[in-house]
């Protein structure tokens, strides 16, 4: 038997003002995307913004439904819209922001497993790393690639 470790590197910022201009813009778009959330049950609004290789930014927001499995996360609404709108372009980065009743939370909202796997699929499709920003009022986390938030990515298809 061999014991191994997985180490994950990421950057932590205290405010959006510390981000580079591109990341600051993407974070602002994710925060704005929270306005499009439909969350009558959880009241937890999540916005996501995807930067495409052509420079365009596509936003998405979580959408709840009384039949709970029928809703969809902000990350996937943004990525699916981006892929449908720009099928030949790569996704370079995604920012995620969330909070109760549309107010940005104090801790970052982190993507669910399904969203992480969809990110992994689009990263693999492009052949380039896709960075992830998790944005909160008091803390922003930046990961350089999906592998950092989803070690041992499922890719055996």
Give short descriptive properties of this protein.
alpha+beta, 6-stranded mixed beta sheet, Cytidine Deaminase, domain 2, 3 helices, 23% strand, 157 residues, 25% helix, globular, 6 strands
Question: What is this entry, summarized?
Answer:
By secondary structure, this protein is of the alpha+beta class. It contains three helices and six strands; from the N terminus they run E-H-E-E-H-E-H-E-E. The chain has helices at residues 21-33, 74-85, 113-126, and strands at residues 11-13, 44-52, 57-61, 91-100, 131-135, 140-143.
Helix content: 10-25%
H/E series: EHEEHEHEE
- Cα end-to-end separation: 28 Å
Largest sheet: 6 strands, mixed
Q: How many separate domains?
A: 1
**Order of strands across the widest beta sheet?**
1-6-5-4-2-3
The Rg value, from CA coordinates, equals 15 Å
State the low-pLDDT regions, or none. Answer: none
Tell me, what is the CATH class? Answer: Alpha Beta
What do the pLDDT scores average to? 96
What's the total number of strands? 6
Q: Which overall shape is indicated by the principal axes computed on the Cα atoms?
A: globular
Per the CATH scheme, the topology name is: Cytidine Deaminase, domain 2
CATH architecture: 3-Layer(aba) Sandwich
Number of helices: 3
- Which structural class should the secondary elements be placed in? alpha+beta
Describe this structure in words.
With 157 residues, the chain is of the alpha+beta class. The protein has one domain (11-148): 3-Layer(aba) Sandwich (Cytidine Deaminase, domain 2). It has three helices and six strands. It has helices at 21-33, 74-85, 113-126; strands spanning 11-13, 44-52, 57-61, 91-100, 131-135, 140-143. A six-stranded mixed sheet has the order 1-6-5-4-2-3. β2 (44-52) and β3 form a beta hairpin. The longest helix has 14 residues, at 113-126. The protein is globular. The mean pLDDT is 96.
